[in-house]
Amino acid sequence: MSNPYQIEGNIIPFIPEGDFYFSKGVEAFQKRKFDLSLKWFKKAIAEKPDNPLYKCQTSIVYTEIGSYHLANQLLTKVLSTHGEDYVDCYYLLANNYAHLGLLQEAMKYAELYVERAPDGEFTEEAQSLLEILDFDEEEEDDDDEWALEEEDDVLIYQETAFYHLEREEWEEAIAVLEDMIALFPEFSQARHEYHYALFFVGEREEAIEKEEKYLKDHPDALFSCMNLAIFYAHETDKEKLKYYTEMLDNIYPIHEQQKLRIAVTLTQIGLYEKALLRFKMLHKSKLKGHPSYYRWYSTCQYFLGMEETAQRLWDEGCRQHNILAIQTPPWKWQK
Question: Could you tell me the Gene Ontology terms of the biological process aspect for this record (predicted)?
């Protein structure tokens, strides 16, 4: 690190450089102040964009807040430029893919890590992960739905659709989801997201018809129940709304993103007390990458009389996500 001090007359200005920003980021990370940590690490990367250590540490922060896609983008860049000098990236990628439910990708990177770092810092964790993934593989059919190369394509489409849906860019989301359904017809979530976007772009009757048909063919489809509850709330069909909300009331998913989706659904249909209980069960650190967490949790709080708490959460979301900063809080247009 070069000398950060430069004398100009009687002034000794301090000129922060990459290592200074990085050290501040590490300090914030150790205190679990992940938002602040990310700001410092991004400054460090801006100063030294080729420093792989900065990117690796930033990826770990993204993992902590549940932004696994962003973490993997950084780790992939490090591997492409520095390869074997940063083998820990293989384990970090495996861990992130496991959280995303892309088990074959997780196995691939965990095996690479064990192979290239048999005595590495994360070898024991990687082996444990492989044992879990091997067990999951035994539970699945031999003809897995997704080949490795297909998983890569699915991930790209998922990221793009998620980006547009979180920003309520319905037409853009529909275009991506239509391609995704054509290419990966067995990936059911794409259909539900398509129906959801279709409803809010104005094609309500078609969206309801498609979702009802899907639920008839797949009676256990949780996403269908959530979508239809929202659709019938907007259609003010109280009888059908009651039917689907009673179903959701007895469902407690394991996966964090499904838990969030139920909490958001309950908020959107006005069941704020039930929604609040669901939001309190979430792990915030895993959902900071979701604007919908801030948008609907703050809305839920507001309509339960927690106006100051709601505003604080909304302001935090605006700092995390630029898209929220240019939007109006939902409670202001739902009154």
Answer: receptor-mediated virion attachment to host cell
